[in-house]
Design goal:
alpha/beta; six-stranded mixed β-sheet; four-stranded antiparallel β-sheet
Length: 275
């Protein structure tokens, strides 16, 4: 069985970095992945700067990861992702035949809805075909919302970047479609468990030796600490826990709880999360 790859996310757009719009993609992608037993390994945010987009995509293509890129694949002057993908791959851009037909089909649908004739040679309709200009060798991603496809390209490192629009109503079903069509072999291959406990009245520095001891004694498990100073229920506290493959967590959890008892810690509710 092939190893489970890391899953990454790239979010493109000045509007996110300026605060004009809040990003909704990352929590949704985490949700879509978690439902299939997969974690999100990282997320990159990049504005509408071609050099930065190209550098970000070049890193993604050189990895062995499965990466989703949201935004910038339209045909307006501030959309650079398609061109940057080609530069990052060292590939030429070309009109994808299947994408072109889908775009024409969408234009025919719109003309019919508006009760106007379809004019394929009209300047704006010709320009819309640019949305189907992808790096050579790209494969299309179906768009169930309006038929304008996204695209996927393979990188030299063995991974793939899947490009979808920035609009959530389009991007999310397209990402879900890619996962179900191309990533099913990795679903729920490595069930993960996270167990934690609320610890009152302790300082992180005092608990660090215990955390280091538990992590060193249980390879493959991560120990985490999430302090809070103004929680509405627990006030000042630390959420201390372990996470990793489900089979490895129980032993680490027992060691952590035993260490907290020896420390004399005041403990509150326990939390368990399985993915």
């Amino acid at each position: 069985m092939t190893p489970v790859p890391s899953f990454g996310l790239i979010i493109v757009g000045d509007e996110i970095l300026s605060g004009k719009r809040a990003d909704k993609h990352m929590p949704k992608v985490i949700e879509l992945l978690s439902a299939r037993g997969l974690p999100l390994a990282y997320a990159d945010y990049v504005g509408d700067d071609p050099e930065r987009i190209t550098a970000t995509l070049r890193r993604a293509f050189s990895s062995a990861d499965i990466v989703f890129s949201c935004g910038g694949i339209g045909a307006t002057p501030d959309d650079h992702t398609r061109q940057c993908a080609a530069r990052a791959l060292g590939a030429e851009l070309a009109l994808h035949p299947e994408a072109a037909e889908l775009i024409r089909e969408r234009m025919r649908d719109v003309a019919q809805e508006q009760g106007t004739p379809y004019e394929p040679d009209r300047a704006d309709n010709v320009h819309r075909l640019n949305m189907g200009v992808f790096p050579q060798g790209a494969r299309i991603i179906p768009n169930p919302y309006n038929k304008i496809p996204g695209f996927s390209c393979d990188g030299a490192g063995g991974g793939t970047v899947h490009f979808v629009p920035g609009f959530p109503v389009m991007a999310w079903p397209m990402i879900e479609g890619v996962l179900d069509a191309h990533c099913r072999q990795w679903f729920n291959r490595q069930p993960q468990t996270e167990r934690s406990v609320v610890v009152y009245g302790a300082m992180e520095a005092a608990l660090t030796p215990l955390m280091e001891r538990v992590e060193a004694g249980h390879p493959g498990v991560k120990v985490f600490s999430l302090p809070s100073v103004d929680h509405p229920v627990h006030g000042r506290h630390i959420e201390l826990g372990v996470k990793g493959r489900s089979a490895l967590v129980p032993g680490a959890w027992d060691a952590l709880i035993q260490g907290l008892h020896e420390f004399g810690a005041s403990m509150g509710p326990e939390l368990v999360r399985n993915t």
